[in-house]
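Progress against Task 2.4 (sequence-to-structure conversion) is shown through the following example record, which the project officer requested during the mid-term review.
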Amino acid sequence: MSLFAFGLGYSAGRVIARGKLGAAAGTARAPAAVEGWRGSGVDAHLFGAGAEAATQAEIALVSIPPDADGDPTLRAYGPALRAGRLARVVYLSTVGVYGDAGGGWVDEDSPTLATTPRARARVAAEAAWRAFGREAGVSIDILRLGGIYGPGRSAFDRLRDGTARRVVKPGQVFNRIHVDDIAAAVETVATAAQPGAFYNVVDGAPSAPEEMIVYAAGLIGVAPPPEEPFATAGLSGMAASFYEENRRVRNDRLRALGWTPRYPTYREGLAAILAEEG
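Structure tokens generated for the chain above:
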């Protein structure tokens, strides 16, 4: 088994570190990142290069977001992937494709009612990969991720550097997912006997965003930041857009495939991060 990761970033790095999907190759945007990955034993290439290596992959993991012209990975590597040994693509998308559900529950059969430009671009990218799969005879798994956190990217880091905020919008909830549970989900679908499908990769325990900040502050013995009403918080356009949509996301389909989140709520996830930090 061999893996090619388009976008050697946070989630892909965790998949590779676990080593369960065979020899790894992939792309990065910066020369320094390419050299760093090569130093750790990954056959890394600048994005746009490495087409020959991509033809040897049996599994492609795609975590590069779409741009104004569509999906950059398909544009740059579609012909190589069609000509190679590829059997499966795992595409990392977002639960943002569901749009606003007014705080209600959604699952993979719910309509994609994306309203923001970046979420609509994700819907289009999902469709493009599914079309590629039909044309090339390749299984396509679309993993729709919740808010990603993990070592180096958690509430602890924001509390320590002073950037944490406790913005309160009554009724607002988010689903989250620890990066190790993402890696386990990738492994589960990449080795499944079932044909490709859509899967929500979330913790199954949606909660108010300010709750996680308060809990994290308690774990490291610092005072949480003061509450800020959403209406007067003055968030940036992107940050505010996350609060414009409110939904609770189910993960039953992925669980039925055999995946069980190691961190079913942020409480277990934050405790594990502290333990990993030592």
